[in-house]
Amino acid sequence: MNESPSWGEVLRGYLRAATDYAHTKKGAHDIRDYARAAGLIALTCALAFFLAEQLFRE
Fold first, then answer.
1. Are 30 and 24 in contact (CB under 8 A)?
2. Domain spans of the chain, in order of start
């Protein structure tokens, strides 16, 4: 009977696939796009919280 892989083995497999993908031209481009999008989202959230704090002070 085959045993299913442990969570550690599954996680290592996913990480290996992600690093292999990151080393391709398309993967590197996608990672830069995702990082840029995450940065813009974080900046937008910070600006929204700052404006809310300024507008709704008591």
1. no
2. 8-55
